[in-house]
Every structure is written in structure tokens, then in C-alpha cells.
Amino acid sequence: MINVLAMILAGGQGDRLSVLSEQRAKPAVVFGGQYRIIDFALSNVANSGITKTAVLTQYRPRSLISHVGAGRPWGLDSLDSSVQMLQPYLGRADMDWYSGTADAVYQNLYVIEESRASEVLVLAGDHIYLTNYRNMVAYHRSQQADATVAVYSVPREEAHRFGVLDLDQNGRIVDFQEKPREPRSPWVSMGVYVFNKDVLVEQLQADADAGEASKHDFGRDIIPRMFASHRVFGYQYQAYWRDVGTIDSYWSAHMDLLAPNPPLNLDDPDARLRTAGAILPPARFGARADVSNSLISPAASIHGKVVRSVISPGVVIEDGAEVRDSIIQHRCVIRSGSVIDRSILDKEVSVGRGSMIGDGDGNVANFERPDIINTGISIIGKRVVVPSGMRVGRNVVIGPGVHDELLDRIALESGASVHPTQMPLHLFV
Where are the domains of the chain? Predict the structure, then answer.
């Protein structure tokens, strides 16, 4: 694997995650209590023995860059291993903001050349799965492929959300459809590619030369153009994989972790999941704490009731408070008498005494974004202060930093949205 360069695409805005990705790149969003989404791609790279890694950022990269740093938690800061954080910049005629996944790699061709790699592994930085890429690279080499696409089988009724590929009996890609209304195959692209270096450079240059005729995207442009003239194969991935690009898929992937036999093992010694951060004290459980079927992170302080929920470090749930079917991120405080049901709370949310979040008609979609917030899940942004006694309905969105905007309200009906009148500067940290 020393001849493989990994390039992780981590610049997406991810607006379908609503306020969770409003002030941070999607790969920097918290997942599983104490991890971030980017940890999965970085851990997979480290576990595969890949020594050369580049992370391509763009949208609000500050928290992502701070998290990855020099790559020490993943063993990528040694004499033999390294990680580069690559951002678009202005000031040269050949550089501009990335206009697509392929363009992002094209603007960093110099990294590919300097790596002296024979193959380039292109990864999405916002998917949840644990794997070793050795098998995929070995398959790519055994097929003498020019490019290999990791493919995953999904129910036909869900395939329309992805790029769908048809494979022949030898695994070679013979057709590609981008988000078709009526998919002809259950195999969808995972957004994971292995390219022979020279072929990748050639294809990226041709795509750049196409100008506005191309969207400059691997899934929409590069792979569809290649499979008829090159040896392009599908590597059939069989283990757990989730694209958590929507609120519903993000919440569902967390609930998967709470299954009696979770399909994704966060403590697999053969596929170790690593993250950055300080060593924290153990979680604390009070005398009246009642916790069932939940994940509780270090430094949490639980005195109330927690059911089917994922709790991040530093969360305080007071005696008499109850959290159900929810995701509570770092340092939130849930005061006594409050109930949180089927909701996602971003970092440092404060919920006053006797409040109820997730109450009402779950069939009323969010009025502003009915396309992405329609399954009864309410989302509370970073550092929101919910007043005591307030009732918040389902499919509600409260933007980051909202405080005074809620003081005169008794309730937010299902489907409502509240945004701050002025974004506090501290929310960009």
C-alpha cells in the first residue's frame, strides 16, 4: 500500500444536514458521541497501511482542520506517513474554488505527481463505515483495471438517491445512471474509487478541457465517460456502509449503533476507529439515573432517564429529565423536568426546566425545508438556549445561537423554524 495515495474529499457544505452543517463542513459533524464523520475515512486509511494522505477541504474548514491537525491520532505524522490539508486558494490563474469532486482533485494534481504513487484512492469524507482498503486495491490490480468503483447493494426503492451501476458477470461496469427514477440495478456507487495514476491524470485533464460542458464530478462525469473505453470494474462491498447526508439517515445511523447486535462495531480491534481529543474522565451516573439501550460517552453526567439515545462527552442530564430516541452532542445541559424526544441537539445547547422538545404532530413537515426535515426529528443548533417551560414541536429547526428570539414564546408548533437575528461570532469556533 506504500504505492497508494489516498485523497479524501472533505469540502462539502452538506445543506441537507440542516443547522448541523451550517457552521462546519459535513465531515466535521459529530457522530457516535465522541467521533466526527471524517474519523471513519481517516481510520480506514490508517488501518489499510496507506502512508500518504491528502484531505481536500473547502466549506468552513476551520473545525475540520483543527480536528485532523497533523494526523497524530491516526498515526499519520511519522517519518513514513503524512497527511496534507489542501484548501482552494485564489491568486493564480489555474486555481479557483472547487467546482466539483473531480475539479478538487484536478486542482491538486501536483500532489499526485509528487507522491510517486501508482494508484490513487479517492474517498468521500462523509460516509460511515469501517474497512481495510487492501482488498479493494488487490481486486483492482487482479482485474488489471484502469479504475474501480466500490459498489453497495441497496433496495431498489432507495437506489434512486444514488448513482446506479450495472455490472456484467465479471464485475465490469457496463452502464451508469445518475439518480434514475427507475433504477435497473441495486448496485450504487459508494463514492470510493481506485484509479491508476496515469489514467486519472488523463481523465481529469480531459474533464477540465470540457469546461462548462461538465459538472466536474467523478460520479456524473468521469466514471460515465470512462466505462465504455476503459476497464472499469465494480468492487462489491458487503459490510455496513451509510451515507449520512440527510437528517433522517444521520439519525438512523445512530439508531443502528443501538441495535442488540449493531451492524457497525465501533470497538472492532481489526478495524480500529480513532479520533482526536483529550483524555476525558469516565461518565458519571447519579443514584437515580435510569439508562437503557444507549451509548454514553466519557465525561457525561447522567442523573435522569436516557432511553435509546447517543450522548456525547460533557453532557449533563439532571435528575427528573428524560431523553428518548435522541442524539445529544457535547456539553449540552438538560435541566430537571425536561423531556427530549426524537431530536438532535448540537453542541452546548441549554434546555431549561420543564421544557419539552419533540412534542406534537410528526406528520407536519418543516415549512422551510419540507424536503429534508419531514420524519418527526427536531434539530436544535449549537449553543441555543431553550427557556424553561417551553414546548417545541416535531420537525422544528432552531438555528445556531438562538437565545433572545425564544424568550417571549411559549411554544413552537411542529414545522416551525427560528433563526438568529444576528449570528454571534463565537459560533464560528
Answer: 4-256, 284-428
Query: CB–CB of 225/205 below 8 Å?
Result: no
120 closest CA partner among 198, 213, 236: 198
Q: What burial class does residue 21 get, using C-beta atoms within 10 Å of its C-beta: 0-12 exposed, 13-18 middle, 19+ buried?
A: buried
Determine if residue 32 is left, alpha or beta; phi over 0 gives left, psi from -120 to 50 gives alpha, anything else beta: left
Cα separation of 175 and 302, whole Å?
A: 53
Closest to 277 measured CA to CA, from 39, 62, 58, 48: 39
What is the DSSP code string of 1-35?
Answer: -TTEEEEEE-----GGGGGGGSSS-GGGSEETTTE
Whether residue 92 is predicted with pLDDT greater than 80 in this model: the reply is: no
Residues 317 and 303 sit within 8 Å (Cβ to Cβ):
yes
CATH top-level class of 4-256 = alpha beta
Could you tell me the CA-to-CA distances from 362 to 122, 186, 246, 309, 415 in Å, in that order? 39, 30, 17, 19, 9
pTM: 0.93
β-pairing, 310-311 vs 295-296, is parallel
Greatest mean pLDDT among 137-146, 170-179, 184-193 lies in 137-146
234: helix, strand or coil: strand
For residues 136 and 45, is the Cβ–Cβ distance under 8 A? Answer: no
- Total residues belonging to the chain: 429
Supply the CATH classification number for the domain 284-428. Answer: 2.160.10.10
Say whether 284-428 and 4-256 share the same fold. no
Residue 316 DSSP SS3: strand
CA-CA distances (angstroms) from residue 83 to 72, 269, 332?
A: 9, 23, 32
Using a CB cutoff of 8 Å and minimum separation of 24, what contacts does 275-278 make? 275/34, 275/35, 275/36, 275/39, 275/73, 276/67, 276/68, 276/69, 276/72, 276/73, 277/34, 277/313
* Amino acid of residue 17: L
